[in-house]
C-alpha cells in the first residue's frame, strides 16, 4: 500500500496541478446526473437484449427518486483505461459532464476480470501479485479520470467500489478476498481516494460501498452471471443516493 500511496501522489500532482474551466449551469433547469462506467450502470442483461441502457439500471432509479435528468453513459466491457480515454477526448462525454450536477463512476471490474482470465486461479501468490498491479492501474486511471472531470464540473461525484460477483456455489467465490478485500486490494485503495484527493484540494468525492452492500449477493446478482439483478440495481441506487446525501 505504501508504493500505491506514492503512485497516487504522483498521479494526483500530474492530473490536478492545474485548474480547468468549470462551466456554469442553469439554476432553473432540472438537475442532471451523468453516470459513467461499464456494464453495471448500463444495466446489462436486465432486458431481452442489450441494445440500450436499461431503465432499471441504478442511474435511472437515482434519477427517479431525486427527480434528475439522467445521462447514462455506461459502456459494457469497458475498463478504467477506456473510461479515462473517453472522458479525456470524447466530445459526448465531455459535453455531458460540462452540464452535470451530479456524477457517478462505476468501473474497474473488467480490469480485475482480465487478471483472472490471464492468470487463472492455480497460484494464489501469482494472482495476488497481478491483482496488486491491476489495482495500481485502476487507481491511476480513476484519479486521472476524476482530474479530467474536475476540469469540466465541480458536481458531487460518487465512485462505486467493486462488489463480489461470485455466488457461494461459484468456484471463484473463494478468490474474492484476494481480488477485493485484502489490504493491498482495490477496495482499500478506493476507500483512500476521498482523503487523498482532499489533500490536493479536490472535494466532493464520495465512495459508495457496493462491496459491503452486496455481501449476501444471492438476490443481487443474476444467477449464472456477474451483473446485478433489478434488486441489485435498486440497492446500488440506494447507496448512491445516500452517498450524495439524499
CATH architecture: 3-Layer(aba) Sandwich
CATH class: Alpha Beta
CATH-defined superfamily:
SGNH hydrolase
Counted by DSSP, the helix tally is: 11
Order of helices and strands: HEHHEHHEHHEHHEHH
Q: Which band does the percent of strand residues land in?
A: 5-15%
The figure for the number of domains is 1
Distance, first to last CA: 33 Å
What is the residue-averaged pLDDT?
Answer: 87
Uncertain parts:
none
Strand order of the largest sheet: 2-1-3-4-5
Major sheet size, sense and barrel closure = 5 strands, parallel
Structural class: alpha/beta
Proportion of helical residues: 40-55%
Detailed description of the structure:
Residues 35-235 form the SGNH hydrolase-type esterase domain. Residues 1-24 form the signal peptide. The chain has 246 residues and is α/β, with parallel strands linked by helices. The chain has one domain (2-6, 30-244): Rossmann fold (3-Layer(aba) Sandwich). 50% of the residues lie in helices and 10% in strands. It is built from eleven helices and five strands, in the order H-E-H-H-E-H-H-E-H-H-E-H-H-E-H-H.
Amino acid at each position: 500500500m505504501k508504493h500505491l500511496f506514492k503512485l497516487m501522489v504522483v498521479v494526483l500532482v500530474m492530473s490536478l496541478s492545474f485548474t480547468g474551466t468549470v462551466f456554469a449551469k442553469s439554476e432553473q433547469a432540472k438537475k442532471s446526473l451523468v453516470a459513467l462506467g461499464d456494464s453495471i450502470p448500463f444495466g446489462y442483461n436486465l432486458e431481452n437484449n442489450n441494445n440500450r441502457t436499461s431503465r432499471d439500471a441504478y442511474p435511472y432509479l437515482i434519477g427517479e427518486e431525486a427527480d434528475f435528468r439522467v445521462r447514462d453513459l455506461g459502456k459494457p466491457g469497458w475498463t478504467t483505461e477506456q473510461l479515462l480515454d473517453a472522458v479525456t477526448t470524447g466530445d459526448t462525454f465531455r459535453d455531458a459532464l460540462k452540464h452535470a450536477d451530479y456524477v457517478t463512476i462505476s468501473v474497474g471490474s473488467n480490469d480485475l476480470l482480465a487478471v483472472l482470465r490471464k492468470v487463472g486461479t492455480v497460484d494464489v501468490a501469482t494472482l495476488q501479485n497481478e491483482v496488486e498491479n491491476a489495482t495500481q492501474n485502476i487507481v491511476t486511471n480513476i484519479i486521472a479520470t476524476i482530474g479530467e472531470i474536475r476540469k469540466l464540473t465541480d458536481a458531487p461525484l460518487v465512485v462505486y467500489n467493486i462488489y463480489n460477483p461470485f455466488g457461494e456455489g461459484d468456484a471463484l467465490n473463494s478468490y474474492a478476498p484476494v481480488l477485493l478485500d485484502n489490504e493491498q486490494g482495490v477496495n482499500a485503495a478506493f476507500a483512500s481516494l476521498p482523503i487523498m484527493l482532499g489533500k490536493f484540494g479536490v472535494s466532493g468525492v464520495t465512495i459508495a460501498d457496493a462491496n459491503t452492500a452486496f455481501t449476501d449477493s444471492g438476490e443481487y446478482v443474476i444467477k449464472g452471471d456477474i451483473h446485478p439483478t433489478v434488486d441489485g440495481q435498486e440497492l446500488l441506487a440506494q447507496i448512491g443516493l445516500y452517498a450524495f446525501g439524499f
